[in-house]
Amino acid sequence: MKLIGMISIFWLFIVLVYGTSDFSAWGDPESPCNLHVSNYYIEHAMSDTSVPNIVTAILADYRGFDTMFETAVIFSAGIACFFLLRRPKYDAPEAVVFRHIQTGITLRIEKGGRLPKESDEFERIDTQWVPYDLVIQVTSRILVPFIQLFALYVVAHGHHSPGGGFQGGVIFGAAIILFAVSNTLRKTTHRVSEKRSAVLCAIGVLIYAGTGVCCLLAGGNFLDYSALSGLLGVDPVTARSHGIMMVEMGVGLAVTMVMIWIYYNLSSAGKQHEGL
Amino acid sequence: MTEHYSVLLIIMPFLSGLLISIFGWYDQKKCYAIAILCLFLSIIISISLLLAVMQNGEPVQYRIGGWAPPWGIAYHVDYLNGIVLVVISLTSFLNLAGARKVIEKEFSDRIGAFYTLYILFTTGLLGMVVTGDAFNLYVLLEITSLTGYALIGFGVNRAPLSALNYLLMGTIGASFYLLGVGYLYMGTGSLNMADIAHLLPAIYHSRTVMFAFLLILCGLFVKMALFPLHGWLPNAYSDAPSISSGLIAPLTTKVMVYVMIRMVLTVFTPAFSFSFAALNSTMVWVAVIGILSGSMLALFQTRLKRMITYVIVTEIGYMVGGFWLGTRDGMTGAILHIVNDAMMTLCLFLSITLISYKIKGDRFSDFRGIFRKMPVTMTAFVVAALSIIGVPPTCGFFSKWYLISGGIAAGHYGFIAALLFSSLVNAVLFFRVIEIGYFEPFSDHGANSGHVPEVRMDEAPVSMLMPLMITAAMLIVLGIFSGDIVTRAIQFAIPASII
User: Fold this and answer.
1) A39 to chain B nearest CA, in Å?
2) Which of A157, A204, B10, B442 could form a disulfide with A253 if both were Cys (CB 3.0 to 4.6 A apart)?
3) In which region does residue A233 sit, left (phi positive, over 0), alpha (psi from -120 to 50) or beta (all else)?
4) What is the DSSP string of A82-109?
5) Do B7 and A63 touch (CB under 8 A)?
6) Residue of A nearest to B176 (CA)
7) Is residue A117 assigned to a domain?
8) Could you list the residue range(s) of the whole structural domain that residue A164 is in?
9) Is A43 in CB contact (< 8 Å) with chain B?
């Protein structure tokens, strides 16, 4: 069976290679795919949208509808993870473990016992807790704000350089995941709760779709940002540039939050009260 | 506003899905209302779109972002997808309409997420059908697939494993499609379907186009579960929660058949697609083998849901075979069967949802005396069964009629024989269930056979029965008006070059 599999794969490989034999040469300026739509994009992107980065213009304007649904794909991934993994009803653990930070003494509080208040002195820890490395904790604490700042730059600079909502969103999400890895999941969910990440991620996609609906209400076609010119008080071409900015921010928000949401569910196997 | 209908059909459920996911965190009671309202609106929009196409006699076009087609994405509604749009929104609505209690019981703590996935899945299917852009189709295929995996994965038994299996197979299928679209882009430099169709004739002879054609077909065959590639379907559909399989089973495979028809007729055009006699007859023979093996495999099943999943595999064979016959009647039958089969499968799965609401287990032996227990549900089940067997005046008869006359016109007697054989097998399959349910006395597991226990009627609530009864009535209405459907819509969906 294995042999038959190998032979058929090899045979298919030969067939597929044969299929590529009349492809146009690599980088051939005369090949059909370099002569049709791409020419139009290269020649008109700047004058149509006033966005110097052609990729951004295609991604968020000419084919902005695809990008909206790509964002929706990411959103679906987040909600699918939640749907399949989340275990909201959990039995209260037998005992809860707290650690006195200054002395390092751990307290084991049985069911029904009085829990200490949230404070700088006590922190709740998991049963499999190991001391976090101070160097890692401090380094990542210093790094996180810079990563976040860079993420915002990447989102904002998508018009001029490689970047945009997806990339910026991933970087921003990664910053928060770095915080979660170097500290505890519980500390992170305190700052960005699951509910907040889920709602904000839907809002991110809503910003994208909502921009399109605004265009529709302003009298244009769906996602025709030039219809927003009256609303924004600029000429139609600049309005396209601003429209792209708006949807990029929506994408950034959605991607950030989905990253965090999926991390919460995956790292703790859906329990979210104990985990990495 | 009417000119925006085609995009509203996608945007409205999409926005509702997002809203539901937010409401799911605050007020779960509103989720159902939003979902059902948006599906109802999408029925209205899709019907008015179809009527607009029928009145004007020409496709409804829409430019998203205001960009003209080859540069931007265009929506294109004609007779072919107008019909499929109505079927999708109707099926999705009917499946959800009565299911509120089931959903609250089954997904008590994640209702918001369930409705979001449900609506996004429907959005994806609608978007795949309405679009006139080959890549946009792929993006929506991804949404449909992702949400579909999630909906299936939350089922019983080994549902997560079945969903994973489906995910692997589905991803391979989708990748093949994407690769094919890449080849097309390489050959033509365009992604718009109409534009590709316009540019292709100049390079019909090239290997790139040939491979694009084969890759796209392979991908779609995996996705539609044509016989040798059907491995993922039975497990995925029978392990899924019944409400999810009621949405996914009638629609996914049928929409994939639509995509195949769209690709073959619109993008590659019949002049190219039907110029390889060997390829066409291979397709029909593959379909014939699929019909025969699907029927045989269905015979071996002892669980109702699993049996029906194999019937779905058989039905895919009908549509693919009928279409590749290349005759006008065969194609009419294939397109009509998309409509009919969606409704028949929906009716079957709705009745299964109702049965599983009242009875645990779906082995045949669990159905003893069920006619006395749930007479209305079982009546609808019988109507659906008759339709699948192909008894007039139910709609299943008429599409089979067209398929068979297509086979006669093409002189393909193997296909006709397979159709008749599988109709007979279907009769055996369903009468076995009906016999157990009607004649055998009701008994629980291990009950003594000495006396017949009294069976009280214990029918599902009226709110759940209504959609089922409407669906069952639809099967007969569709059958009676199938002549009108063909003469007013389907015959315009098939290019004039096909006779």
Assistant:
1) 10
2) A204
3) left
4) HHHH-----PPPSEEEEEETTT--EEEE
5) no
6) A16
7) no
8) 52-89+132-267
9) no
| Residues 6+ away with beta carbon under 8 Å from A271 | A87, A90
**Residue A227 resides in a domain:** yes
Number of domains observed in the structure of chain B: 1
Q: What percent of chain A has pLDDT over 70?
A: 93
Q: What's the gap in Å between the CA of A126 and the closest CA on chain B?
A: 25
- Which chain B residues have a beta carbon less than 8 Å from that of A8? none
**How does pLDDT run across A266-275, given as a tens digit for each residue?**
888 777 765 5
Instruction: Pull the structure tokens for residue B248.
Output: 């996914």
Distance from CA of B76 to the nearest CA of A (A): 15
* pLDDT class of A118 with cuts at 50, 70, 90: low
The answer to whether the Cβ–Cβ distance between B11 and A209 falls below 8 Å is yes
- A113 in a structural domain: no
Nearest to B189 among A33, A209, A216 (CB): A33
* Chain A contact for B189 (CB, 8 A cutoff): yes
Per-residue pLDDT tens digits for B148-158: 999 999 877 78
Contacts of A195 in chain B (CB under 8 A): 25
- C-alpha closest to that of B324 among B185, B439, B450, B220: B220
Who among A18, A82, A224 is closest to B66 (CB)?
Answer: A224
Tell me the residue range of the domain where B364 lies: 278-499
**Residues of chain A numbered 166-225 and touching chain B (CB < 8 Å):** 195, 198-199, 202-203, 205-206, 209-210, 212-213, 216, 220-225
**pLDDT beyond 80 at A217:** yes
* A202 φ, ψ (degrees, to nearest 5): -65, -40
Count Cβ atoms within 10 A of the Cβ of residue B125 and give its class: 0-12 exposed, 13-18 middle, 19 or more buried: buried
Strand-pair partners of A98: A107, A124
Contact B186 A31 (CB under 8 A): yes
ipTM over 0.95: no
- pLDDT value of position A80: 92
pLDDT digits (tens, 9 = 90+) for A56-69: 888 888 999 999 99
Q: Give the nearest chain A residue to B179 (CA atoms).
A: A16
**Nearest CB neighbour to A216, from listed B4, B113, B188:** B4
User: Is A66's CB within 8 Å of B139's CB?
Assistant: yes
Chain A positions touching B199 (Cβ under 8 A) are 32, 36
Alpha-carbon span B66 to B271, nearest angstrom: 32
Chain A from 83 to 142: CB within 8 A of any B CB: 83-84, 86, 88-89
Q: How many domains does one find in chain A?
A: 1
In a domain, B270, yes or no: no
The residue type at B267: V
pLDDT at A175: 94
Q: Are strands A122-125 and B74-77 parallel, antiparallel or unpaired?
A: unpaired
Residues of chain B with confidence (pLDDT) below 50: none
* pLDDT score of A160: 85
